[in-house]
Design brief:
Elements lengths: L1 H11 L1 E3 L5 E2 L5 E2 L1 E3 L2 H4 L2 H15 L6 E5 L4 H13 L5 E5 L12 E2 L7 E9 L3 H12 L3 E10 L5 H8 L3 E6 H4 L8
Parallel strand pairs: 5-6, 5-8, 8-9, 9-10
Antiparallel strand pairs: 1-4, 2-3, 6-7
Length: 187
Amino acid sequence: MKTELIALLRRKSFQFTSEPTFKLASGKMSRFYVNCKPTTLDPRGMFLCGHLIFGALRGLNLAGVGGLTFGADPLAMATAFVSELQGSPMKAFSIRKTQKDHGIVKWIEGDMVPGERVAVIEDVVTTGGSTLKAVDRARAEGLEVVKVVALIDRQEEGGMDRIREKVTDAVALITRDELLPPGSAVP
């Protein structure tokens, strides 16, 4: 499944150039561009991502899986769907970018209860800032974050190392180097 997902990501979600031409959220320029949404919103992409992320979470006795909207949303839904099919149901949740200011003021949408064990997921990690924001907000809502799973680690700015400072069990399923076509080298 991982090999098929890498091929799909290469085709739909990944570009690279010899010179830094892509502006990152941090403002820095990069030779690599990753937009997972064309893959994670594709039916086959959802299937592959859901199975691979569920595999990374299997056996952890989690109540839920989610992350910062919008990048984590299709991943959380795909994983929750697969978890039900596999007989180990986990609820999906979504963490808002801005706190709801009406009704019940909260960061998280979904049927989560304080004290529940969860995994925070992310589509792409560069600096780790978005993932750490999601971890902090989940914890602020009383959830116990026991694992972080990133679909892709860009390997550029130490994001996974920063994440592991707050959540020691943090993994990336695919690295930027795995997305490069065979024979390509990263200087």
